[in-house]
Specification:
This protein is of the alpha+beta class. It contains 2 helices and 4 strands, in the order βαββαβ.
Length: 120
């Protein structure tokens, strides 16, 4: 089955438990349609670069999935209809990267970026 990565942003006025409940809800939608969630991460409340629906912050969630295209389409459809979800991004990947996402790694572990001052 194809591999996908999803990031969605939920409204800032939800509690952490409600935001994590959204992750579980969409995981159940995928599993009901023949897919599975390989990994999931809750990134917490983060400030966005610009306002979306008069919100400056949002609850970010990340899912790595292994599912057929119809299951992904159904999950995206339900995400777009859900009042608490503001934005959805889904990309198809060739393989899932092992370990935590870049967002969950500590700054000192992100050594591949290098020192910005050295490039001048």
């Amino acid at each position: 089955m194809p591999l996908y990565e999803h990031v969605f942003i939920a409204r800032q006025d939800l509690s952490n438990a409600q935001a994590e409940g959204l992750i579980e809800h969409f995981t159940a939608v995928l599993s009901d349609n023949g897919g599975k969630v390989v990994d999931q991460e809750y990134w917490g409340v983060k400030t966005m670069a610009y306002k979306i629906n008069k919100n400056r912050k949002g609850h970010y969630a990340f899912l790595r999935t292994d599912a057929p295209a119809p299951a992904i389409q159904e999950m995206e459809r339900l995400m777009r209809l859900h009042d608490d979800v503001m934005r959805v991004l889904t990309i198809k990947v060739d393989e899932h990267v092992e370990g935590p996402s870049v967002q969950m790694q500590k700054r000192d572990e992100r050594s591949d970026r290098g020192d910005r001052r050295e490039r001048r």
